[in-house]
């Protein structure tokens, strides 16, 4: 393959990871990945690099007038590649559906972090919807990690969706919720006592927990 063709191929893979391919091109590339393990691995490596960069920007913002666009690297039905090993189990015609059907080809060892740091109720719903879709259709391990305003989702005294959180924990043993102890400490210093929903785990630091998971190969979703 010539260097020019290689460059075109890499441009195509980058466009796939960025969610910028048209529907037909995305479907064709997914079919190619089903047949070619090397191609799957190549796209996984690209996605993992972007996961690290995205999280670095969110955790350690640069002192510049503008910041990178708020982007979710993974969104069901839009074909982004953070769940690549799961995504290649979709029938190509399913892309664009509101909730994809997963097949036995889905990889049972995939692991996903869903990161929530906003008290916006719409983002609460989006985080739970993403987590449930993955947990329901696959054997993937899923962690919803909350810090800052996102902690409200996991507070029994404040969450508007406490019942739904409890229900998801009861229904899906592969789904866990993790609260940031740094955020808990900040709220206590403000005179609040956060009461977490029973079963919520606590990590010393959401940032350190997520970075460790990324180093272990987990995929990252920011809501």
Which superfamily, in CATH terms, is the homologous superfamily of the largest domain? Answer: DsrEFH-like
Into which percent range does the helicity of residues fall? Answer: 40-55%
Molecular shape: elongated
Q: What's the total count of β strands?
A: 5
Mean pLDDT: 75
Query: Which CATH top level class of the largest domain fits?
Result: Alpha Beta
| Structure annotation, total helices | 8
The biggest sheet amounts to: 5 strands, parallel
Domain tally: 2
Query: What is the oligomeric state here?
Result: single chain
Low-confidence stretches: 1-5, 60-109
Order of helices and strands: HHHHEHEHEHEHE
Distance between the termini: 39 Å
Q: Radius of gyration from the CA trace?
A: 18 Å
Strand order of the largest sheet: 4-3-2-1-5
Structural class: alpha/beta
CATH topology of the largest domain: Hypothetical Protein Ychn, Chain: A
The fraction of residues in strands falls at 5-15%
Describe it for me?
The chain has 223 residues and is α/β, with parallel strands linked by helices. It has 2 domains: 1-91, no CATH class; 108-223, 3-Layer(aba) Sandwich (Hypothetical Protein Ychn, Chain: A). The protein is built from 8 helices and 5 strands. It has a 5-stranded parallel sheet, with helices on both faces. Strand 2, helix 6 and strand 3 form a beta-alpha-beta unit. Residues 1-5 and 60-109 have low confidence and may be disordered.
Give a nutshell description of this structure:
The protein is an alpha/beta fold. It has eight helices and five strands.
Please render the helix and strand layout as text.
Elements: H1 3-17, H2 23-35, H3 37-59, H4 84-87, E1 111-116, H5 121-137, E2 141-146, H6 162-171, E3 175-180, H7 181-189, E4 201-203, H8 206-215, E5 219-222
């Amino acid at each position: 393959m010539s260097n020019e063709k290689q460059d075109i191929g890499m441009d195509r893979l980058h466009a796939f990871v960025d969610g910028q391919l048209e529907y037909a091109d995305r479907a064709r590339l997914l079919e190619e990945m089903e047949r070619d393990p090397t191609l799957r691995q190549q796209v996984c490596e690209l996605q993992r690099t972007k996961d690290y960069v995205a999280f670095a920007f969110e955790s350690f913002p640069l002192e510049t007038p503008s910041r990178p666009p708020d982007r979710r690297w993974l969104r069901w039905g839009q074909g982004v590649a953070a769940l690549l090993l799961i995504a290649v189990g979709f029938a190509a015609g399913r892309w664009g559906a509101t909730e994809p059907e997963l097949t036995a080809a889905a990889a049972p060892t995939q692991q996903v972090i869903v990161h929530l740091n906003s008290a916006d109720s719409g983002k609460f719903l989006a985080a739970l919807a993403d987590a449930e879709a993955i947990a329901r259709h696959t054997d993937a391990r899923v962690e919803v990690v909350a810090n800052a305003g996102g902690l409200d989702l996991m507070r029994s005294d404040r969450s508007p969706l406490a019942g739904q959180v409890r229900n998801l924990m009861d229904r899906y043993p592969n789904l866990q919720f993790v609260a940031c102890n740094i955020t808990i400490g900040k709220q206590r210093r403000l005179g609040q006592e956060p009461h977490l929903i029973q079963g919520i785990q606590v990590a010393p630091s959401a940032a350190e927990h997520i970075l460790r998971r990324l180093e272990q190969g987990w995929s990252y979703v920011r809501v």
